[in-house]
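Reading a protein record of the kind used here takes little practice once its layout is understood. The fold follows as a row of integers, each naming the local backbone shape at the matching residue. With these conventions in mind, the following record can be read line by line:

_____
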Amino acid sequence: MEKYLKKVLTCKYLGIRFDDQLSWRNHIDYIYNKLKQLTGIFYELRSMLAYIGGWLQNIYYAFVYPYLLYGTEIYANT
């Protein structure tokens, strides 16, 4: 039985999206779209949580910061 490799345009490996040109455009677009959604949530929460000290910062470090930080060692230097 012969096995064949299938050529794909993008591949997700350990949460990082690679494309066939290694341009990181797909990965950056994914992060951008995810952060754009979270920005809308922050906009709605800012008036409710503005008076409670530290909550917005905690939510930022829980939901936004991991997207910005994860994998930067790999694609930030290219």
